[in-house]
Amino acid sequence: MGKTLAEKIWSEHVVAAAAGEPDLLYIDLHLIHEVTSPQAFDGLRLANRKVRRPDLTIATEDHNVPTLDIDKPIADPVSKLQVDTLRKNCAEFGVRLHSLGDVEQGIVHVVGPQLGITQPGMTIVCGDSHTSTHGAFGALAFGIGTSEVEHVLATQTLPLLPPKTMAINVEGTLMAGVTSKDIILAVIAKIGTGGGQGYILEYRGSAIRALSMEARMTICNMSIEAGARAGLIAPDQTTFDYVKGKAHAPTDGDWDAALTYWKTLTTDADAKFDKEVNLNADELAPFVTWGTNPGQGLPLTASVPDPDDYSNAEDRGAAKRALEYMDLKPGTPLKSIKVDTVFLGSCTNGRIEDLRSAASVIKGKKIASSLRLLVVPGSARVRLQAEAEGLDKVFLDAGAEWRSAGCSMCLGMNPDQLKPGERAASTSNRNFEGRQGKGGRTHLVSPLVAAATALKGTLASPADL
Amino acid sequence: MEKFVKHTGNALPLRRSNVDTDQIIPAVYLKRITKSGFEDGLFAAWRNDPAFELNQPQYKSATVLVVGPDFGTGSSREHAVWALQNYGFKVILSSRFADIFRGNSQKMGLLTVILPQADIEKIWQEIESKPDTQITVDLGAKTVAYAKTTLTFDIDDYTRWRLMEGLDDIGLTFTKIDQVTRFEEKRLSFKPKTLPIR
Predict the structure, then answer these.
(1) Do A374 and A409 touch, CB atoms closer than 8 A?
(2) Which pLDDT value is given to residue B58?
(3) Residue to test with chain A: of B19, B30, B33, B95, most A Cβ within 10 A
(4) Which residue of A has its CA nearest to B76?
(5) Is B173 on the interface with A (CB under 8 A)?
(6) Residues of B in contact with A144 (CB under 8 A)
(7) Using the beta-carbon criterion (under 8 Å), do A78 and B32 form an inter-chain contact?
(8) Model confidence band, residue A346 (pLDDT cutoffs 50, 70, 90)
(9) Where are the beta strands (DSSP E) in chain B?
(10) What confidence tens digit (pLDDT) does each residue in A366-395 have?
């Protein structure tokens, strides 16, 4: 029997295997940021260990950093200490770091692909659950905890039990105004936040093949929201074209060798997935979440559900709690929900194509006077590119705030937070209670819906304008 | 890592599903650079509510958390495990844990035990009616015992052995480090390096 793509990449990275033990897996790339690494570096120091492969390790500052006044010292002393600790650790252990103000600084999952350091067939880890983003290149990429960060720093390996595999087949053609964000929100609504637990997802089918690399990254990014540690897409010409010419892409003879290898990275025709899920792209519509977990989503044309309609007691209780937190009444049309803040950014939707698509809706118009629109590019390079294309002007002229790169309001660790009771339409990945600021309420949306909502003041798609 | 062999303690019932790691500890509490002091951030948003289970005097001494399905979803932050341990929890019982959270807990010696939801419901009822109920979790025997009930649970033998011996994963991997070196010698030469280009 053939192998799935995930199984192929896994088996090519097994350093040691023994019955009854986890496989020891080699890690090709380790991405680091300030929040989940200080205790790991401390562990190395205590045990007198060094970083085994600084040449396969790269760090950036993203979670904690301000998106305003980045040329000034970080105002919050605790945030500053964490960032300073990363700088000290990287200097001491010889790890390349892109600090705030550096042209390569940005969200770790935006930086890897834009440097060309994310390539097909690799194993990639980071102390961040959205590492699954890199799976869009046909890499096996997943988030790890700080103990594992220390393990990878010390040994460039991880002991892991092989997961099961699940195919997510998306056939058909997306209608205008429907994006990869809507695909993944629909997938999560279908299989639930626990549906992917214990699996690596492989997104397949004609609708996936038709997507750009950045759109694929949005899908893989949110695999974790379906409970899967990793999600991937087999590399194809779209992938190869994207990687070619990037700073760390192979060149000359290496490129040819790499390309020959990358073309083998597909699921064999006779391979069997442990589970398959099918979605019809033709039927998808712009999606929005109404609750407090990413599985609580519906098409924008729907209304807030009634908890009593759920047959399962757990779902009923969760829906009740969610509606109370979100201050929503059953039966309210989603399009009538008024929003205070629109956040455009994050490792899910903070790339240049996301900014372009939002700008195409906003161009020449003004945002609703009742709300603020925060635009936070995923990286300093994305910001520069957007400025070169005049997108900053489009947003500023519309009345938006144009910020510097970072995770920002996706997790509200820096000053960019919702106030208690404030309601946001957000292109990020998590609508958990308090995620974007204590007491804040989040509706997850695509960049197109975010832009239309910013103009209208209530949840809307461009077709509603 | 501290060895985990057997633990007996009072339990706290938390009838909520999908408790993500942002609920276990919000991002604003993640700025420390140590593994200690995170207890203040544990369930921070909910602790303002006097009715929240953690604020109930009858559960003050609880060391076993009994919680609904899909505990620990979302962010990979190991701080969630540290916060639970810093507060004093030794064992979490649930019908489903998120993958990354479970992995993190097993690295730190916080025991996560999977039981059928029907059993979790019975334990909830027991500890809600008798909060001083003692629960004994025996990793050697793979059992959870309370009142007159004894339940068995599954855990892979390798993880069980590591937890019971309190073994450090990095130390174990260093015993295979020659194999890592040999693997590195055969890696595909075109794989990228992070060293600055030019």
Answers:
(1) yes
(2) 96
(3) B33
(4) A129
(5) yes
(6) 76, 100, 103
(7) yes
(8) very high
(9) 6-14, 62-67, 91-94, 111-114, 134-138, 143-146, 149-152
(10) 999 999 999 999 999 999 999 999 999 999
Distance from CA of B176 to the nearest CA of A (A): 8
Instruction: Take residue B14 and report the two structure tokens written for it.
Output: 């938390």
CA distance A417 to chain B (A): 10
Would you say A126 and A158 are in contact if contact means Cβ atoms under 8 Å apart?
no
Cβ contact A155–B22 (<8 Å): no
pLDDT at B168: 86
Beta-carbon contacts of residue A59 (< 8 Å; ≥ 6 apart): A31, A32, A33, A37, A86, A90, A95, A96, A97, A98
> CA of B35, closest CA in chain A: separation in Å?
7
Count residue pairs from A and B with Cβ separation < 8 A: 209
C-alpha A163/C-alpha B81 separation (Å) is 22
Looking up tokens 């595909």, which residue turns up?
B188
User: Would an 8 Å CB–CB cutoff place A170 in contact with chain B?
Assistant: no
Q: What is the pLDDT of residue B198?
A: 57
Please judge whether B100 and A129 are an interchain contact, meaning their C-beta atoms are less than 8 angstroms apart: yes
Q: Which of A158, A283, A130, A327 is nearest to A218 (CA)?
A: A130
Say how far residue B43 (Cα) sits from the centre of its chain.
Answer: 14
How far does the CA of residue A282 sit from the closest CA of chain B (Å)? 29
Please give the mean pLDDT across all residues of chain A: 97
Q: What are phi and psi of A143, to 5 degrees?
A: -80, 150
Continuous segment of H or E residues that includes residue A361: helix A352-362
Q: Could you give the percent of chain A with pLDDT greater than 70?
A: 100
Q: Which residues pair with B149 in a beta bridge?
A: B146
* Residue recorded with tokens 């700080």: A146
pTM of the model as a whole:
0.97
Q: Do B73 and A250 touch (CB under 8 A)?
A: no
**Chain B nearest CA to A341, separation (Å):** 20
Closest CB from A16, A117, A143 relative to B194: A117
User: Given A148, A163, A413, which is nearest B27 (Cβ)?
Assistant: A413
Sheet order of strands, B62-67 included: B111-114, B91-94, B62-67, B6-14, B134-138, B143-146, B149-152
pLDDT at A353: 98
pLDDT in tens, B148-179: 999 999 999 999 999 999 998 999 999 999 99
Whole-angstrom Cα distance, residue A134 to residue A118?
7
Instruction: Please state, in angstroms and rounded to a whole number, the distance separating the CA atoms of residues A336 and A348.
Output: 25
Q: Measured between CB atoms, does B177 come within 8 Å of chain A?
A: yes
* Mean pLDDT along residues A75-85: 95
